[in-house]
Every structure is written in structure tokens, then in C-alpha cells.
């Protein structure tokens, strides 16, 4: 009998372009889950290179892997440092609230 080889799903393997990254991040932010935002930034960081991100943020690779693992919500200062280093700019838009 043939054995099927599988591997753990990693979003980073499917972020092939800047458009893919932008759309993925847009959807995650729209959901509003800070843990998922950390995981999404982690996937983007793995796509672009975690070692370079560590240098650019001044944080250790170990700290980044922990913070961006998707197991907990990263601290806001970590999020802002990571987004700046990845070249991600957030913009705001007002929305109508239900009456």
C-alpha cells in the first residue's frame, strides 16, 4: 500500500505576490481578531524572511516567532514595529454604525 505524504498547511506558501498579501491582510483585519492578525503577519514575515524582519524590528527571531504564532495576541508595539518593517500601512475609513 502506498503512503500519502502530507505536510502542515502554511499560509506563507500561498502568498506569492504583493496583491495576495494585501488581500489576505485586508480580510484578516476585517475579521477583527488580534490573534489572527498576529498569525497573518507571521505568515507574511515567513514569506519575506524572518531573519531580515528581526534585524529591521530589533526584535529577536524567537520573540517574533512567539508573537506571530497565532497562539496569542501580539502586543501593540510589536504589531506596529512589524508592520512598519514589512512596509504595511494601515488606513482608516469610517463606517456607519447600526442605529
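^ Assign residues to that structure.
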Amino acid at each position: 500500500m502506498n503512503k500519502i505524504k502530507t505536510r502542515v498547511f502554511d499560509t506563507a506558501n500561498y502568498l506569492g505576490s504583493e496583491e495576495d498579501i494585501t488581500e489576505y491582510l485586508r480580510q484578516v483585519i476585517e475579521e477583527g481578531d488580534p490573534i489572527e492578525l498576529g498569525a497573518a503577519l507571521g505568515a507574511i514575515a515567513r514569506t519575506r524572511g524572518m531573519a531580515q524582519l528581526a534585524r529591521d524590528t530589533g526584535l529577536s527571531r524567537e520573540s517574533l516567532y512567539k508573537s506571530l504564532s497565532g497562539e496569542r495576541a501580539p502586543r501593540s508595539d510589536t504589531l506596529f514595529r512589524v508592520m512598519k518593517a514589512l512596509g504595511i500601512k494601515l488606513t482608516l475609513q469610517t463606517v456607519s454604525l447600526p442605529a
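The mean pLDDT is 92.
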